[in-house]
Amino acid sequence: MFGNPAANVSKETSSVRQNQNGSQNQNCHESSSDLNYQLQCGGPTFYARANDVIELNDEDSKDITDAERARTSPAAAAIVPLRRWVALQENASMIPHAKRRSYQLGLQRAAILRKITLSYAIGELLQHLKFSVSSYSQAELLRLFSVDNFSVHVSTDQTSDEGWEVMGVDMISPPLCVQLTSNLFSISDFFESAVDGEDWGRNVEAVIARHSPFCCAKSVTEDETRDGRFLCFSLGVLLHFLFSGENRLDESVKAGTCQHESAEDAHRVDFILEQSRRPKSARIQSQHIRSVSSADNGHDLMNVNSTFRPLHCFGYTHAVSQVVKNLLDCESVGGLFCPDDAYPSLEAAIKDLRLLLREPNIFLFKSNDVLVIPAKGKFYGRSLEVSALTDAFCRVASSGQSEAYIIGGFSGSGKTRLVESAFNSVLAADGMLVYGKFNETSNSQLSVVLSALDDLCIMIADRNTPEQSQYIWQRLVSEFGNNFHLLVRTLPNVLRLASSLSSTLSRDGDILSQGEVNFFSLCDSIMRFMRVVSSSESPVMLFLDDLQWADPVSLGLVHTILSDRKGASCLFFVGNYRDNEVLPQHIIFGFYDWLKAFNVRITTIHIDGMPEDDVNSMISNALGVLPRVCRSLSRVVFRKTDGNPFFVQTFLRSLIESSHLKYDLRRKCWTWDIDSIYAENITPNVLDLISTKMTNLSQDVQTALKVASCFGTKINISVARDLSDTPQYLGLLSGLNKAVEDNFMDPVPDGSYRFVHDKVREAAYGLICCDCKDQYHFDIGTTLLFYYESQIGSTSGDLVAVIDQINHGVPSLVRSQSQRISIARLNFTAGSKAMQCYDYISAYTHAKAAILLLPSDSWRMHYDLSLGLYFQLAKSAYPSNKIDEAIEALNKIVKHADCVETRLNGYTLLHSILFNTCASNDTEQLLVTIVNVLKSLGEDIPADDVARRDVATQVRLAKRNFERESDDALLQMHKNSSKPNVAIMQAYNILVNLSFIAKPRLYQYFVARWAQFCLKSNVACKYVAGAYVAFAVVLCKDVSGTDARLGYRIGKLGLKMLHEDDTATSELPSVYLLYFGFVAVLFEPLQACIDMHRRAYKMGLQIGIASIAAWHKHFLIIREIHSGTNLLCIKDEIEHDLKMAKHHSMPHLVMKLSFYYETVLTLIGDESASSTLQLDREGSERPTFDRESTFLFCRIVTSTYFGYFERVKSMAKKWEFSIDAHSRMLNLRVAYISFYYGLSLVSLRRRKRSKNVPEKVIMMLEVLKTAADRSEWNFKNKVSLLKAEKLSCCLDNSAAEAEYDIAIAAAKSSKFIHEEGLACELAGMHYKRLKNNEKAVALFNRAERCYKYWGSQKKSFQMAEKAKQISLLK
Q1: What Cα–Cα distance (Å) separates residue 837 from each residue in 227, 280, 542, 806, 1311?
Q2: Cα separation of 573 and 579, whole Å?
Q3: pLDDT greater at residue 1250 or residue 335
Q4: What is the DSSP annotation of 1080-1092?
Q5: In this protein, which residues make up the domain named Orc1-like AAA ATPase (predicted)?
Q6: Residues 720 and 730 sit within 8 Å (Cβ to Cβ)
Q7: C-alpha to C-alpha distance for 389 and 575, rounded to whole angstroms
Q8: Contact yes or no for 496/548 (Cβ under 8 A)
Q9: How far does the chain reach from its first CA to its final CA, in angstroms?
Q10: What letter does residue 609 receive in the DSSP assignment?
């Protein structure tokens, strides 16, 4: 086809080949005892320069310059004849070393890897060779593909015991060179670290000398198929020699004749070569071949492999043997009768060789006699999903913004393995990874999240230095303050950050444990904890598996962290769930919606089974056979399993158990019969497969699996050991260990046992008869209980594990009364522990189970237990959103309580529930009940009508009592802590709070009576501060009155008592609400009150007083509007708080925030945005006056700033009529209404061109002057501005201008940027009326800047337009 290439070989090259062959014939059988031999011994030295091969004799080598040597070593490799290289590799792997045995194994593996590397290089070289079988004689073909026609490029580093790295290969005649590039410079670079075979995979690329006249591009035309098969056969011959050292078809170049080891081999080879040179049409027909074979003494000419011993006989793996065998199969009688496994082309063979290089641990080093699926570190068919997941985490780490990533899919589809693929990225980014798994059988799903976050504390302590841990500890203490004990209760391992300081928590812990803690406080604590410990420098990945078993509380906690408005948490949340096992109304879809509502980025994906090619790769790696060989088996498995990874594993193991898949010890490979697999009725149902296998296990193993399945996906080692010590479960541990051997369970680092998959646990649980499951659980629980009581003397073992098992049989399986009471007490103890960890759902479950066991006369026979259980039920039912059950439990407590103190504790909790749920009817009924309690305690409470008439008298009496005492006397007098007095104080506290909502006209009366009793009895308790501040509010109720100063004094005393009384910390939010909401705001800067409201809001959430926290948020927002806080910031804050209030069902807060949100949007000028929120003004059960007065007040504010003074006047009059005695205590609002109302009346009078202002303006001005006398900071600018407007209307221009200047300066001094803008605007209008356009423009421009800084785009635009109009007139 191309002519004979040998004719084109230069004389110099021929000389090189002859000299090389001669030296090889002389030294090919020499063995070296030391690998550090000199390459030139026994023959000339060779160097590779560019693409030429140069022969250098000893004399010539002296003339090589140092520069030439530096250039050729080691990058330009030395060349070793192939035959000698093979001999040296065998010697290298056999030489004993003084080093460890594993090092010797490493040497052998390195030798195998070099041979595969060289095989790949030879294959690439032959693939690019210009070649035609018909152009060569038999002798020429044998010379061309002779071992002696090839040489190996090796690195010249001769100091390594491991030998030289293969750098390339040369064909001497015709001259052709292949050089290799690898991701590893040399094997010795990673030899020590990879001696166990973990990291031996390589990516190798071949570089061909393209300019060679004997090089061609790859071609696959039909005419060249024959040549390609012969090249495959020739490669097989070379590789067989390379691996075995045997050359059964060796040739000796002597006078152009061919000598073989036997006449039989020669006859076979001659026949093959003859058939190969002929055209396809001229080849001998198969019948003639068979006749020749029969006549040839029984020798089969079609079976060329009979000449070559299989490589597995030499200790190589089946994969290596298969590659060489299939190469040799390619020239079975010229390719006429090639087996199906024969390679169709060199390209296919090279592909397999590259696979062997990439996966040596699977195909070269492993015996593969044990099925391991999936291969270690492998993940099949999920490259796109892995990339997307990794990108999402990198996005979180770089931006510092939390994200959620939810993965849905069928059971066994590889969801967990997909998430595990991102673990290395998390660790590489200095991130922290925590994991939790929800359990179908658990009553405590919230504990899964808390346990994962508790593990985060351990991880932080372990990865940081003591100094770094101390720094994190100090930040946490600073963040939580006196409430740090709440974090410790939630995450006990936080103490590991600084255990030496943990003793300082005991005092505060005892103090604050008296406060009621609910889900709000839990969310707040965890959210602030995550702000401290997570950041873009240390992102946290929280992985929760099996979200289909999660409950609203656990997902609500995750939502709170992700939706942190401050954005300080850097959390990457990943969740998996079985999307075929959830209904459309499942909580997980609501979780999606809420994350989107809070603008949290969320990614959801669904993963199906693997494609068929990936199933083939998995099976190939598991069996250690080449992918093309196991294709037929993979096709069957794929059809049966739909590519589900776990089902694939289970199905393959079932094939092994049914002997359809066997390991052939002689051939060292797995074998199978496709026809028998198709014929056999093997179920594809994974549960049936697993269950069938389990039923064939021994009784001990089945018992172990059944017991473990009763505890969920994991059984703790402590429980397993305790059970194994009992006669009923003696073989439990051995059965669990056998289950591990049978691949049903995995050992956990802490010694526990875990099912390898949920389906395995499901199959194990299915071994228990459906009607016997409750009895089986109950027997396990009672066995453990008896063991603990008899062996340990108490139930100090795993109490939760015991009681969870026993409760499966409650109450039907509990026979004796004593046993019922004993189990009820255990449930109470377990519920108390759950309450300490905020696990209210578990506590509720335990309380309900225990109450079912109580006898009908439990309140008489077991009073303390009944009281404790019903309190536990009430406290756990309310945060679990079972309000009716909580109220019912509290009513039973009140009914059966044997003392007033107990009833009051019940009333207190009932009041908290009613206050949070806005149940006004129940609130009024409770108020009547508390009045009756006070009467029973000796307090004379008159009827409502009498009390209303007596309000002034009682206030006056209480006022005199306070006026008679000095501050020191009042602080020192409270020392009486008798229980009856404390009970009365507690009852008054409840009564005052109830009257604030239910009977506001009696609020002042009850407060006055409370204050009088407080002073008269000298009682010492945590409610004293509340009595003082509540009475201060009463004295400050009238802005124009004279008692406000006394009220401020009493309020400050109450605040001081609060701060000095450690037991009163739980009352802080309530006392702060009264003091900073109604007292301090009249005397102290508005901004300072805002800060205290913010602090009290956080405190209220921390200790679980959500209703009080909501009131603080209400005051916080309206005070921010009053103080000129940037409107855009207020808008963002309200949007977040509105979503949280709706999420946590707080309708009263939703109502108020909705009004404020519309107000802020109107002031900004983005009124259309109000439609984006669904405001429910009528959905609240709050009294009408509260809703209406708030609505009117918000409209008065916006109408004033936009000049709608008629509307201000109308709404101010409505506001006066709408308020009652309760609303008049909102004194700051009264002052602001006076300010806005006064401005509107003056403006309206000016429009009528009247110089006389209404009398009401004078009244409003007096109210503001009184307020300014108490707080110049808050009200001086308002007094001056209203006075300036009055003077301007009366045409007293000079006096008006002076007041305008004072108003502007005072507003700026107080940092009321919005009121500075309003003063500039009104002053500008004044100067405009006086035709002083220059002054007016300057004031309008200043007003524009103020409004712009405030965030009011609409007002800023209006001021710019006014200034522009005046400029045009000028």
Answers
A1: 77, 83, 19, 22, 45
A2: 18
A3: 1250
A4: GGGTS-HHHHHHH
A5: 378-565
A6: no
A7: 12
A8: no
A9: 100
A10: P
| CB within 8 Å of 1020: residues ≥ 6 apart | 974, 975, 976, 977
State the Cα–Cα distance between residues 1161 and 1155, nearest whole angstrom. Answer: 10
Dist CA 592 CA 272 (whole Å): 70
Q: Locate 888 and state its tokens.
A: 């019912």
pLDDT for 331 beyond 60? yes
CB 744 within 8 A of CB 698: no
Residues for the chain: how many in total? 1370
| Per-residue pLDDT, 23 | 39
Greatest CA separation for the chain: 139
What is the enclosing helix (H) or strand (E) of 1287? helix 1272-1289
Range of weakest confidence among 812-816, 926-930, 1017-1021, 1143-1147: 1143-1147
- Indicate whether 1369 pLDDT > 90: no
Looking at residue 1109, its pLDDT comes to 86
pLDDT tens across 899-911, in order? 888 999 898 888 8
Q: How does DSSP classify residue 1225?
A: G
User: Under a CB-based contact definition with an 8 Å cutoff, are residues 133 and 219 in contact?
Assistant: no
Residue 108 pLDDT level (bands cut at 50, 70, 90): confident
Closest CA to 878 of 919, 849, 850: 919
Q: Rounded distance, CA 33 to CA 709, Å?
A: 61
Alpha helices in 937-1067 (DSSP H): 944-949, 951-964, 967-972, 979-997, 1003-1017, 1024-1035, 1044-1060
pLDDT above 80 for 746: yes
Q: Record the tokens describing residue 755, joined without a space.
A: 């099912």
Cis status, amide bond into 374, omega within 30 of 0? yes
- The token pair that represents 751 in the structure block: 């010694």
Rounded CA separation 774/776 (Å): 5
Question: SS3 string of 970-1004?
Answer: HHHCCCECCHHHHHHHHHHHHHHHHHHHCCHHHHH
Structure tokens at 559: 């939502």
As a whole number, the mean pLDDT across the chain is 79
Comparing 310-314, 627-631, 1145-1149, the range with the smallest average pLDDT is: 1145-1149
pLDDT tops 90 at residue 1136: no
Eight-class DSSP state of 334: T
Joined tokens for residue 304? 């060329």
Residue 199's pLDDT is 53
| CA-to-CA separations, 1027 to 235, 1019, 1067, in angstroms, rounded | 100, 11, 11
Name the residue among 538, 462, 453 with its Cα closest to residue 496.
462
Q: CB neighbours of 456 closer than 8 A, spacing ≥ 6?
A: 432, 434, 491, 533, 540
Residue 1355: is its pLDDT beyond 90?
yes
According to DSSP, residue 654 is labeled H
For residues 1070-1087, give the mean pLDDT.
92
Instruction: For residue 1065, give the 3-state DSSP assignment.
Output: helix
Work out whether the CA dihedral 524, 525, 526, 527 comes out positive or negative: positive
DSSP, residue by residue, 12-51: HHHHHHHHHHHHHHHHTT---S-S---TTTTS-EEEEETT
Place of tokens 């000698």: 84
pLDDT at 94: 57
Tokens of 998: 């239910």
Cβ proximity of 553 and 582 under 8 Å: no
**Residue 79, helix vs strand vs coil:** strand
Would you state the structure tokens that stand for residue 903, as one six-digit string? 């009833």
- Strand 601-607 relative to strand 403-409, pairing: parallel
Spatial distance between the Cα atoms of 1326 and 566, rounded to a whole number of angstroms: 43
> Which residues contact residue 46 at a Cβ distance below 8 angstroms, ignoring those fewer than 6 apart?
20, 39, 53, 54, 55, 56, 78, 79, 151
Please say whether the beta carbons of 73 and 156 come within 8 A. yes
DSSP track, 551-563: -HHHHHHHHHHHT
Q: Are 870 and 892 in contact (CB under 8 A)?
A: yes
